[in-house]
Write a structure and sequence with these properties.
The chain is α/β, with parallel strands linked by helices and about 210 residues long. The chain contains 8 helices and 14 strands.
Length: about 210
């Protein structure tokens, strides 16, 4: 599996290009900004974007949706519960003094347990609300793309509208920490980690933050 990471936009969102080596088809996760740069990285890697997935609908994760979809013809997917956030992305950005173009409507609304297949690759949608109502992770091929649900040594903020700390922690502990410890964790911001490392060192998971 091909995995390339680009930190994009003023909030340095991790945009992931996930490619199938045999078919050169690619999944683009969280194109938050800098659409032309993402397209250039796809071209450099010889990959064709066929699906864009937003792990949630906050503006910093969706800002280049329109650019990617229009340029590549890729479909757009998002959890159904975050559709209102996606539609309000420009308003969200303005509240931070920033601008983002409106996103097209999703072609596919995701739900817990759905499978996303890209060439020979397969990923399961894990619904992990708490940072936002429709927050999701994608798990497959030994990798977890977790948006703003889980970070290296931390978790997503829950003080935004629709956030819920208890809900987020419950999903992290019950749905993510049961994955194999060698699972590579790719968060929405910051460095990668593993499930095993987070079990041992993340204070929100081992209880040290209490």
């Amino acid at each position: 599996m091909i995995v390339k990471t680009l930190a994009v936009g003023p909030l340095q969102v991790n945009c992931y290009l996930v490619g199938c080596p045999r078919t050169a088809k690619a999944l683009v996760i969280d194109p938050g900004d800098e659409g032309p740069r993402i397209l250039a990285a796809l071209a450099e890697a010889g990959l064709q974007a066929v699906l864009v997935v937003n792990t949630h609908g906050h503006f910093d994760h969706v800002g280049a949706n329109a650019c990617l979809v229009e340029a590549s013809g890729a479909e757009l997917a998002l959890h159904a519960a975050d559709l209102p956030l996606l539609r309000q992305a420009a308003r969200q950005a303005a509240s931070y003094g920033l601008q983002t173009p409106p996103s097209p409507e999703p072609d596919r609304l995701l739900h817990n347990g759905d499978l996303i297949e890209i060439g020979d690759l397969s990923f399961e949608v894990i619904h992990t609300p708490g940072h936002s109502p429709g927050g999701i992770c994608l798990y497959g091929e030994g990798h977890l793309f977790c948006g703003d649900t889980l970070f290296a040594g931390s978790i997503g903020r829950t003080d935004l509208p629709g956030g819920d700390l208890d809900q987020l922690l419950g999903h992290i502990r019950n749905d993510l920490m049961i994955l194999p410890e060698a699972t590579q964790v790719h968060p929405g911001h910051g460095p990668d980690s593993t499930i095993g490392r987070e079990k041992s060192l993340n204070p929100f998971i081992n209880g040290d933050y209490l």
